[in-house]
Amino acid sequence: MHGIKQIIHTDHGGGIVDLPALPANARIEATFRLVTDAETSEDGRRRRPSSRIAGKGRIVGDLIRPISDAEDWESNR
Question: Are 40 and 47 in contact (CB under 8 A)?
Answer without folding.
Answer: yes
